[in-house]
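Researcher: For the annotation table, I need C-alpha cells for Diheme cytochrome c-553. Please keep the output clean. Sequence:
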Amino acid sequence: MMTKLRYLGKALRMAAAPALAATLLAACDSGSSSSTPAAGSTVKPGSADQLALGRYLTKAADCAACHTTATGAPFAGGVELASPFGKFYGSNITPDKQHGIGKWNADQFYKALHDGVTPDRHLYPAMPYTSYRSMTRADSDAIYAYLMQQKPVAVPSKQADLKFPYNMRFGMMFWNVPFLKNSLSDASAGQSPAWLRGQYLSNALGHCAECHSPRGVFGQLDLSKPLAGAALGRVAAPNITPAGLAAVGWTAADLQTFFATGIAPQGSAYGEMFPVVHLSTQYLSKDDLAAITTYLLGDKPLPPEPVKAISADAVELDAGKRLYTAVCAGCHGFQGEGKPHVAVAMKGNSTVRNTDPHNLIVAMLDGIEAQKFPGTESLQDMPGFAGQLSDKELAQLSNFLRATWGGQAAEVTPDRIKSMRLTTAH
Ligand code: HEC
Ligand code: HEC
Ligand code: HEC
C-alpha cells in the first residue's frame, strides 16, 4: 500500500472480465454491511449507536488515507502528501493529550473540519476542510466520539515542510476568504433523496472533488468544472461528470461494483483511486453506494455510449497488434477480453476509452503494483514496460488499443511517450 499520496493536483500532488467482476461482487455481498447506521441527528451522544455511526463516517470520509500510514498505529499521522508547494503530513489525530487531539472538545474538532482552524493554528487545505465544511454537526460529533475511543499514541505530528511563501501559515486566512465556500458545485442534476444523500456522501464525506475537480494556481478547487478531471500526480483523475462517465461506458450497476470491489467490466481501481476503494468505499452500505452513483450520474442518467468504430492506419494498427499479442495478451486476453483472477479486460476499458491517453501510457510505462481487492480477489502486479519497449512501440500499442477497443483516434506520437517517461526512478 502506498503511503505517499497526491491530492492538490499537479499544484498540490498527493500520492475484467465480466466473470471476474461477478465473482468480486459476490465476494463483496457477504463482506460489506448492507445497511447504513442511523443518521447523525437521531443518535444519542455517547451511545453505542453514535460510535458505530462515527466509525462508519470516518471510513466514508476516508480520514485514514492521510492520517494512518501502512505501518503506523491507526490515526497516529505521518502520511506524506507531496506537492509543488512542499510536503504536508497528516497529523496525529489520536486522543493523545500531548501529541494528538486529546485536549480538544467537540466544538474545536468541528471548527477544524468546518473552518480549517484549530485551537492553535490555521490548517493548510491539504487537509480537505474545503469539502468537510458541509459535514453536519451531528456527523462531526460522531467522528469525534469515535476518534476519542481510539488508542492514544504518543508520536509527535510531523510538521509541513514547505517552500517560501507557502510556509507562512497565516496566509491561509487570506486563502480562505475567496476560496472556502459553503458548498461545492454539482456536475449532475437531481433532487431525489438518493441524489441528495449521494451529494452529501461525495462532497462532505468522500471529498471526491479534491482529486477529480481541476484546481487553480492557488491550489483552490475550480468550482466551474466540478469533477471534470484533474492532472493530480502520475495517474490523472478522470472526468467523472455524467457526460464523462457515459462516454466511457459506465452504468449505475458497474459503478457500484467498482466502488464495492475495485473491479468492474470498465477496469480496476489503481493509482490514488485504489486507496479510496480499499480504505473507504468498500465499507459503504449498498444504499449509500447507490446514492453516490445517483449523484454522479444524476436523476436522469445518460445512456452509456457504445465503443465507436474508428478508422486508422493499417500498418500502424498491425504493428500494435503484433506487439499486443506478444507482450500483453498473455494476461489481458487475445481479444482484449481479460482473464479472471489475472487481469482486467482492455476491450471497453475506461482507461483505454479515455480521450486523453495519459493514464494508458502511464500504466504501460510504470505498471501497477500488486493490489489486494475487497473480498478474495488480489491481482498480481502489472509489470512496467518502460525498459523493454521503445517510444515508437509504445505509441503503436497505444494506438492499436485506442482504435480497436477504445473508440479513440490513433493519434499517440512517440514524442508523447518520450515526454512521459520518468526521468528518475520512482
Ligand atoms: C487528503 C488528506 C487528508 C484527509 C482525507 C484528512 N486529513 Fe486531516 N489533515 C491532513 C493534513 C495534511 C493535516 C495537517 C495540515 C497542516 O499541517 O496544516 C491534517 C490535520 C488534521 C487535524 C488537525 C490536527 C492538529 O493537531 O492540528 C485534524 C483534527 C484532522 N486533520 C482531522 C481529520 C479527520 C477527522 C478526517 C476525516 C474526516 C481527516 N482529517 C481527513 C490531511 C487529511
Ligand atoms: C503479467 C500480467 C500483465 C501483463 C503482461 C500486462 N498487464 Fe496490464 N494489467 C495487469 C493487471 C493485473 C492489471 C490490473 C492491476 C490492478 O489494478 O491491480 C493491469 C492493468 C492494466 C491497465 C490499467 C487498466 C485498468 O483498468 O486497470 C492497462 C491500460 C494495461 N494493463 C495495459 C497493458 C498493456 C498495454 C500491456 C502490454 C504492454 C499489459 N497491460 C501487460 C496485468 C498485466
Ligand atoms: C486521492 C485522489 C482521489 C479521490 C479522493 C477520489 N478519486 Fe476517483 N480516481 C482517482 C484516480 C487517480 C483515478 C484513475 C485511476 C482509476 O481509474 O482507478 C480515479 C478513478 C475513478 C473512477 C473511474 C473513472 C474511469 O472512467 O475510469 C471513478 C468512477 C471514480 N474515481 C470515482 C470517485 C468517487 C465517487 C470518489 C469519492 C467517493 C473518488 N473517486 C475519490 C483519484 C481519486
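Researcher: And a one-line annotation?
Model: The two ends are 15 Å apart (CA to CA).
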